[in-house]
Amino acid sequence: MTPKHAAVVLLSGGLDSMVTAAIAKERGFNVRALSIDYGQRHRLELASAKRIAEKLDLADHVEIELDLRAFGGSALTDSIAVPKSGVDDTIPVTYVPARNLVFLALTTACAEAAGASDVFIGVNALDYSGYPDCRPEFIASFTETARLGTKAGVEGSAFVVHTPLQHMTKADIARECDRLGLDPAWSWSCYDPVPGDIACGLCDSCRLRKKGFAEAGITDSTVYAA
User: Fold this and answer.
1) Is 21 annotated among the ligand-binding residues?
2) Angstrom distances, CA of residue 4 to CA of 31, 88, 112, 187, 193
3) What sections of the protein cross the membrane (predicted)?
4) Does 15 appear as a known binding residue?
């Protein structure tokens, strides 16, 4: 891996992270992907992350374990029902406490170890579930924290946190998926799959994804139960 061309992408296995990884590769980066097994209810996304890394022929794919079920406090890591009534203006119980803060710190650590100064994350602040750690101000604040809290940063090699989907709608992301020649079914978005490993179609993540593809007029090859 050539350090000056290296980048680390946080690859959850979802649609947004898949499109982000493809964009990073399109921009000429030698992409190393990081996926995190945090005890999530929708563990199928980890298999999707592995599939995406293979399909995109990424330079490397690292998966680490960080079991956030020890903390709980989220429908994704605790015995709390995943809401199926639709997206509203409140932060839903699918929010995992400080998840992107923790994950970006790990991604930055991975990048620093690899000699990379570019980090990619597929956060979005338009069509999303209202998570506070998806907002531009959070990304800006974290970037400064990374500069202050790393050897690379204090020695003058600041990290760049790329958020190529930050101001896109889900329809825009669906169009990018299509433009990049990606199969939506490679990715997994559902928070609460039904028996047979089928997306529920009713959780916030499924609703936002289906809405995006419908508005873009693009077929989502994912099978939904509802």
Assistant:
1) yes
2) 12, 42, 12, 29, 40
3) none
4) yes
Asked whether residue 12 is marked as a ligand-binding residue, the answer is: yes
Is 14 assigned a ligand-binding role in the annotation? Answer: yes
Residue 39 neighbours by CB under 8 Å, 6+ apart:
67, 68, 69, 77
Structural domain containing residue 209: 3-216
11 marked among binding-site residues: yes
Q: At a CB cut-off of 8 Å and minimum separation 6, what does 65 contact?
A: 36, 37, 38
Cβ count near 125 (within 10 Å): 18
Q: Average pLDDT, stretch 142-160? A: 95
- CATH code of the domain containing 183: 3.40.50.620
CA nearest to 123, candidates 111, 112, 132: 132
Mean pLDDT of 112-118: 95
Burial of 225 (0-12, 13-18, 19+ CB in 10 A): middle
Contact status, residue 49 vs residue 168, Cβ threshold 8 Å? no
* Residue 181 is labelled as binding a ligand: no
Percent of the chain at pLDDT above 90? Answer: 88
How many domains are there within the chain? 1
Six-digit token pair at 191? 């928070």
Please check whether residue 188 lies inside any domain of the structure. yes
Within-domain flag for 223 = no
Report yes or no on 226 lying in a domain. Answer: no
